[in-house]
Write a structure and sequence with these properties.
The protein is 24% helix and 26% strand. With 478 residues, the protein is α+β, with helices and mostly antiparallel strands. Helix 7 runs antiparallel to helix 8.
Length: 478
């Protein structure tokens, strides 16, 4: 069949999934029920790990960084009228972490950049296409849509918290929704505030709209407004103008570009897969926006699933697809935990450990099915172990880096011996063996999603890798 994968939902998760497939030569269609691309900010923080995941696409992260910013400091406006600027965090890149801090960039801009990159592979979201039903069988999935019946080998449901795909499958969405805990989120244009700070106001009592945040969105004339708790009024233009005007005598609302009411919704599925249908992003897990984890966790889902679907479609052992739930479900559970921990906590009160957790740089699949059974997952050995994030490092005598070389192929083997070869991979000679703690004769296989796959001799790594490789190698796009 020409369409090997149908992705439902053209948000960050669906766009990333479609891009991961299209750049590997997989026939993919991207369907979205909305008549036009999403136009609001919603999420606005791209975490360091997401920046690394998107970098391998080739230039996407460079483009995003050019359109965002990392140096915006929080300005606290206290109830007594005093103002305090919180100290900024270190944004200095290091050889192993080129993007060490959260990138402030609105969700609509992330989606725009991903759509532009996806177009390079001849794929565009099909807007206004509604999925009504689907049926999975041994050979594929039949999808009933508003434009007719479609057929694909696999379907990825990335269609948000109200996922039609999830509901059609009958997958339970476990958790709770708290209708009484609500907040308004809007993109607005205003005057009277400087755009060099993320302005936040708070009051000791939880009266309506006692907490307000106004964040200037980079490369845009708009601000993201967050305010809560809501009262019984509809947060229309008049109410938003009232909220903004209360920030100071010269602060005025000019225009409302987008608005939404957020309700506390903490839920997740117990399985990311039903037959040949997979769930990803908000379709699989929703939680508090605290910590900016939603968009980022969805991108992580998409990257994890994308390379595995492509490999299986090109001849790899299909048991590889069983590792998707096994690896990503614990990650989602952890995200629900950290976002709940941060809810109601001021940004400036976060500990260094909490900031590191939300960066997602420490996420690991050590104890997952692709980890090394001969290594205790709770024991730290020298260098990153199987399942850990693979850091960047200078390579090829200072002429390149591990991250740059990873753009050339799905699987990368790192070594200090340029003669070491593992079939189906690109060999990268690292300049400093200390980053990966490489012993003489040892190589490290890096997975397509930038996690360590296995350590050992070239023969040992090659034997482990063989069932995971596509039989016909399709170079990743640049």
């Amino acid at each position: 069949m020409d369409t090997e994968v149908i992705v439902v939902g053209a948000g960050p998760t669906g766009l990333t999934a479609a891009l991961e497939l299209a750049r590997r030569g997989i026939g993919v269609r991207l369907l979205d029920a909305a008549p036009a691309p999403f136009a609001g900010s919603r999420g606005k923080g791209l975490q360091p790990r997401s920046q690394e995941l998107l970098d391998v696409v080739g230039g996407v992260t460079d483009r995003l960084v050019a359109l965002g910013r990392t140096d915006l400091r929080v300005r606290r406006h206290e109830p007594d009228g005093t103002v305090r600027d919180e100290p900024g965090r270190d944004t200095t890149p290091t050889p192993d972490t080129p993007w060490p801090t959260t990138l402030l960039i609105p969700q609509w801009r992330v989606e725009q950049v991903l759509r532009e990159r996806l177009a390079d592979f001849g794929v565009a979201p099909e807007q206004g296409v509604r999925v009504d039903d689907l049926t999975s069988d041994d050979d594929g999935v039949t999808v009933a849509t508003s434009i007719g019946t479609l057929r694909a080998r696999y379907v990825v449901g990335a269609d948000g918290g109200g996922s039609t795909v999830r509901r059609t499958l009958g997958v339970s969405f476990l958790g709770e929704t708290r209708e009484e805990i609500r907040m308004v989120v809007a993109d607005v244009e205003l005057e009277g505030l400087d755009r060099d700070h993320w302005h936040q106001w708070g009051a000791p009592d939880p009266v309506p709209y006692s907490w307000v945040a106004l964040c200037p969105l980079p490369a845009s004339p708009t601000w993201q407004l967050q305010a809560g708790p809501l009262d019984d009024r509809e947060p229309d233009d008049a109410v938003l103008a009232e909220i903004v005007a209360a920030r100071g005598p010269r602060v005025r609302l000019r225009r409302v570009a987008w608005r939404s009411v957020w309700r506390l919704n903490v839920r997740m599925v117990s399985d990311y897969r039903r037959g040949n249908v997979f769930l990803a992003g908000d379709a699989a897990h929703v939680h508090s926006p605290a910590g900016a984890q939603g968009m980022n966790t969805g991108i992580g889902d998409a990257v994890n699933l994308g390379w595995k679907l492509a490999a299986v479609l090109r001849g790899a052992d299909d048991t590889l697809l069983d590792t998707y739930t096994a690896e990503r479900l614990p990650i989602a559970a952890g995200v629900l935990g950290i976002s709940a921990e941060l809810s109601g906590q001021a940004m400036w009160a976060r500990t260094a450990a909490q900031v590191r957790t939300t960066s997602q740089l420490d996420l690991s699949y050590r104890d997952g099915p692709l980890g090394d059974p001969d290594t205790d997952p709770d024991t730290d050995g020298p260098g990153p172990r199987a399942g850990d994030r693979a850091p960047d490092a200078p390579a090829d005598g200072g002429t390149s880096t591990v991250f740059l070389r990873r753009r050339e192929a799905d699987w990368t083997v790192l070594t200090t011996d340029a003669a070491a070869r593992v079939p189906g991979t690109v060999t990268v000679t690292v300049d400093d063996p200390a980053t990966y703690a490489l012993a003489p004769g040892e190589v490290v296989a890096v997975r397509p999603d930038g996690y360590v796959g296995r350590r050992g001799t070239a023969d040992e790594v090659g034997a482990w890798l063989a069932p995971l490789l596509a039989r016909v190698q399709t170079p990743a796009g640049h």
